[in-house]
Design brief:
Length: about 290
């Protein structure tokens, strides 16, 4: 992978991106449990283990050892994000599973958004006892599109300007900018001009695209799965998750909840439903003597 920075452009904006997840709360964590089970939680893009902490605390209170993975190049490592591939992200999860498996009788994976795509590929590579997907980032890519992106990789510019034509007056755009560049004033015209010129490393975006195709690979191991989706999610559309379920995960327990792209957070309206479904599912996995060991 390239050793270039993941983004370039206005120095102040880039610094906001690089330091957005510098607080220690964004670092990986592990809470020891008592019930003999372990759960690996995987964050989305461009997030950090911070988004997994509410779920981890809930599950840990019910006896599970919980580990929040930091995908390579994320969190406080944002300057090196473009140095890693989708394979590196999956390897970070499978390595953690292997270590936890040595001391725990059951291991469950939980992935949110892009983390859901990473989790599905990890579950194909190593044995786990259950999978939970929260608004998984996924799409089925025709061969012709894969070929097109191969050509793009070879001949298009090294950096892509994702905000070049963005309408910064919409709430969705403002939320996106706040995730990537916390504190940036999108009502300021000079800031808008600078944002339109920000370039994101093309190879990084292609790795995100590549991991998003992994959930559609078949066959998938015959293991218990819980699939949850917000019905008003503007990032991962409900139609996308319904399509994924029909194509690959028809046997999964599926819940569509009154939520946006915020299912992992305990201060959001759908939290009680997420909590109840997650505890019911993980209890069943823990108590199933015939689940995959």
């Amino acid at each position: 992978m390239s050793r270039e920075l993941p983004i370039k452009g206005d120095a102040a904006l880039c610094e906001r991106f690089f330091t957005a997840f510098a607080d220690p709360v964004n670092e990986p964590f592990e809470f020891g449990g008592s019930n003999g089970g372990a759960i690996v939680l995987v964050h989305g893009f461009p997030s950090s283990p911070r988004e997994s902490r509410c779920l981890a605390a809930l599950l840990n209170a019910h006896g599970w050892t919980t580990h929040g993975v930091l995908l390579p190049g994320f969190g406080g490592q944002a300057r090196s994000m473009a140095n890693y591939s989708a394979d590196d992200w999956v390897a970070a999860v499978t390595d953690r599973i292997a270590k936890l498996r040595q001391e725990h009788r059951k291991v469950v994976l939980v992935g949110h958004s892009m983390g859901g795509a990473v989790v599905t590929e990890a579950a194909r590579r190593v044995q786990v006892d259950g999978v939970v997907l929260l608004a998984p980032f996924a799409w089925k890519e025709p061969v012709v599109v894969t070929t097109f992106w191969g050509i793009v990789r070879l001949f298009s510019p090294t950096y892509f300007k994702p905000f070049k034509k963005t309408n910064f007056d919409t709430q969705r755009a403002r939320n996106t900018i706040d995730r990537f560049f916390p504190g940036a004033d999108v009502s300021d015209e000079a800031t808008r001009r600078a944002l339109r010129q920000v370039g994101m490393k093309k190879s990084l975006l292609l790795e995100v695209r590549r991991i998003g195709t992994e959930p559609y690979r078949v066959p998938f191991p015959n293991i218990p799965m819980l699939l949850m989706q917000g019905d008003a999610d503007p990032v991962v559309k409900p139609e996308s998750t319904r399509k994924l379920r029909r194509a690959v995960f028809a046997d999964a327990t599926y819940l569509e909840l009154p939520a946006e792209h915020d299912l992992p957070y305990d201060d959001r309206p759908a939290w009680n439903a997420v909590r109840d479904a997650l505890l019911t599912f993980t209890d069943a996995v823990l108590n199933d003597a015939d689940s995959h060991l």
